[in-house]
């Protein structure tokens, strides 16, 4: 399967740390998958101006193409001002409305406060649903206290990241099998 991991902010390190851990877990136990990691901190993205995503160039085209061709997407993001970062919203604005059709998406959110644990439910899931994604119901919420010196120190968080990876891969595999069975019903 084609897996894309997106660290959805241009600032901070906690989201990138969590996404890199998730990437290492996926690649260590699931060798047959193609895994791409995109960190918005390292990309030079265009601001969405309504063009078709294929009309962009450089990092913008590479990211949007990878997202539209992925089978599984993991989106990690920090919570700023009780919402998703504007840079992540720009990524969604660059894509067509059906960009996430037939894709399974897992979510990781980092925050400085436990008060924002519902932001993925109220801010991100509605956007992903509108874009036709199959969203994993559970997500991993990581607080400031779960990090120390650039690493995740809470074993429960590590367990939940592992479980998110495993369950998302499992759901995607079953979903792909169902799609193949439906396609096999037709002779053309």
- Topology, number of strands: 8
Nearest-integer average pLDDT: 94
Largest pleated sheet: 6 strands, parallel
**Overall geometric form:** globular
Mind explaining what this structure looks like?
With 188 residues, the protein is α/β, with parallel strands linked by helices. The chain has one domain: Flavodoxin domain (Rossmann fold, 3-Layer(aba) Sandwich), CATH 3.40.50.360. The protein is 42% helix and 20% strand. Strands 1, 2, 3, 4, 5 and 6 form a six-stranded parallel beta sheet that branches. A two-stranded antiparallel ribbon has the order 7-8.
Summary, kept brief:
The chain is built from five helices and eight strands.
Layout of helices and strands:
Layout: E1 2-7, H1 14-29, E2 34-39, H2 58-69, E3 72-78, H3 86-94, E4 104-111, H4 119-130, E5 134-135, E6 140-143, E7 147-148, E8 151-152, H5 155-184
Helix pairs in contact: 1-5
For the structure shown, list the relevant keywords:
Flavoprotein-like_sf, alpha/beta, FMN, FMN_Rdtase-like_dom, 5 helices, Rossmann fold, two-stranded antiparallel ribbon, 188 residues, six-stranded parallel beta sheet
């Amino acid at each position: 399967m084609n897996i894309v991991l997106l660290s959805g902010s241009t600032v901070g390190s906690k989201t990138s740390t969590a996404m890199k851990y998730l990437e290492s877990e996926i690649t260590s136990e699931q060798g047959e998958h193609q895994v791409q990691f995109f960190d918005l901190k390292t990309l030079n993205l265009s601001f969405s101006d309504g063009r078709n995503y294929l009309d962009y160039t450089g990092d913008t085209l590479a990211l949007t193409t990878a997202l539209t061709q992925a089978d599984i997407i993991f989106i990690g993001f920090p919570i700023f001002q009780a919402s998703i970062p504007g840079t992540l919203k720009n990524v969604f604005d660059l894509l067509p409305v059906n960009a996430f059709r037939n894709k399974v998406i897992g979510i990781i959110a980092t925050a400085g406060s436990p008060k924002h644990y519902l932001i993925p439910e109220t801010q991100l899931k509605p956007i992903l649903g509108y874009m036709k994604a199959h969203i994993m119901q559970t997500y991993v919420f990581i607080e400031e206290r779960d990090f120390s010196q650039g690493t995740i120190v809470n074993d429960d968080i590590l367990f939940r990241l592992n479980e998110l990876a495993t369950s998302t891969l499992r759901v995607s595999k079953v979903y792909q099998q169902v799609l193949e069975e439906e396609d096999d019903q037709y002779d053309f």
